[in-house]
Amino acid sequence: MTAPLGAAQRLAQSSTPAWTATIHLRATEFAPSQLEWRAAHTPLSAHASLISAELGGAPVEPRVQLADGAWRVESARDAQWLADGALGRTRDLDRFEGALLEGTTLRAQWNEVGQAAVATRALRVELGRPADSAGAAQVALVFDGEVDFDHDSDPASAPVRTPRREALRLDFALRPAGEPLRLLLPSPFVSGEARGLSLELSVDSRESSEARALALERCAASERGAREQQRALAAHEARRAELEPGIEALDDPARARAALLQLALRTGAELAAELALSCSDSDLAALGASARTALSASLDARLELDALGWRLERATLRALAAQKEARALPYEIEGVLLRLTGELGRSAAALEDVAQTCASLAEFRARLAAENRIFLDDASAAARVRAFDWLAARGQAPAGYDPLAPAHERRAALEAAEKAP
C-alpha cells in the first residue's frame, strides 16, 4: 500500500469508506499464446494507456511477453470455454483481499526466488484509487525478470544476467458494481509446470474495519520507508559531493598525494593512508589509479563510508600483492605493509586471499588478528616472534605466551588463552 508523503494521517481521519479489493491468481498448464481463440481477441497492449520497459534500469523498446502475450477474457462464453479445460490443468496460487483507500495504491506481488535467495522474477498487480477516480479503480501490471544481455557487443565476453522490467497501465476501470476483470497472462516464472496465469480482479464497496486498519498501517509504513529512502539519498549525495573532488584530484600529480591521504582517512583505509604518506611518486601514481577505479565505481552503489573504505583498502592490498608476487615491492613500502598486517603480509597469496574473501574493514582487521594468532604456533621462531610483537603492539597477545619458550609451554599458553572469557 502506497500513498503520497504526508497522506497517512489524512487518510486515518477520512470518513470515505474503503473498498475491498480481491485478487485471485491461478496457474495454468498452457500459456495464453497456445490458445486458438487469441486471433479473434486483442492483446492487452490494445487496452493500455501506458506501456514501458526497462533493461538494467534504462528504458528500452517493450517486448511482447506482457504487452502482446496477454489477453482479457471478454465474455461469459470465453470464461466458460476456458473453464472447460482450454488452459489445461489449473491450480489456485493465491486469493488476496485488501482495503483500497481513496488516494492510495494497493500492490500485490508474487516472487520467484533464485539460488541466492533473491527474488529474480516477479508479477506485481497494482490497483489505484485516485481521489478524482469517479468511482473506479485503475489497474497496472508489472513483470520483473532477467535476460542474458551483451553489454559491450564483444563476442569474446559472455552475456551478463541483467534485470528486465515490463509494465502496463490498463484502461479498464474497475467499479464496485461492475464485473470482475479477468486476464490471461504468460507466466514470468521459469520454475514449476505453470506456463500461464489466470488473474481475476474485482472491487466492491463493503468495508472491513480490520482491513482498513491494516491498510492505514501499510500506508504509514510506506511513508516511513519513503522518508528513510529520501534520507539515504541525501546522505549519498552528500558523500558524493565530499569525495568526488578528491577522486578527480588523483589524476593530478600535484594533488594526488594529498587527495589519496584525505580519501583514505575519511573512509578508514589505514593502509592506503600510510602509503600515501610514504610511497614514492611513481608508486603513488599506480596506487592513485587503483584508488580512482575502486572509488569511482563504488560511488554509484550508494555505499556507506566504511564500505567505500574497504573498496579502497582492498584495491591497495591487491596492488601490493601483485608487486610482491613480481618481486617489485620497494623495501620502504614492504615495511609499512608488514607493520600494518603482521606476518600475513609476507605472503602475496595470503594478501590476495584476504582481499578476495573479506567483505568489510572490520572483517579484514579481525582476519589479520586471527592469522597472526595462527603464526604463534608456527615452526619458525622468527615468524612466532614477529606475529607476537604485532599482536602485543595492539594489546591482543595471549597472556603468559613466550614465542621462544618450549613447544609445550607455548601450546599451554595458547590453550589457556582460547578458554579465557
Radius of gyration (Å): 31 Å
Bin the strand percentage: 15-25%
Label the overall shape: elongated
- The helix content, as a percent range, equals 40-55%
Helices and strands, in order, run as HEEEEHEEEEEEEHHHHHHHHHH
Written description of the protein model:
This protein has 421 residues and is α+β, with helices and mostly antiparallel strands. Helix content is 43%, strand content 23%. The chain contains twelve helices and eleven strands. The strands form two sheets. The protein has a six-stranded antiparallel β-sheet, with no helix packed on it. Strands 4-10-11-1-5 form a five-stranded antiparallel β-sheet.
Show the helix and strand layout.
Layout: H1 7-13, E1 19-28, E2 48-55, E3 58-59, E4 71-72, H2 76-86, E5 90-100, E6 104-113, E7 119-129, E8 137-149, E9 160-174, E10 181-186, E11 196-204, H3 209-249, H4 256-267, H5 270-278, H6 281-299, H7 305-325, H8 331-341, H9 348-357, H10 361-374, H11 381-393, H12 407-419
Antiparallel strand pairs: 1-5, 1-11, 2-3, 2-9, 4-10, 6-7, 7-8, 8-9, 10-11
Helix pairs in contact: 1-3, 3-4, 3-6, 4-5, 4-7, 5-8, 6-7, 7-9
Summarize this structure as a short list of keywords or feature phrases.
alpha+beta, 11 strands, 2 domains, 5-stranded antiparallel sheet, 23% strand, elongated, 6-stranded antiparallel sheet
Could you give a short description of this structure?
With 421 residues, the protein is of the alpha+beta class.
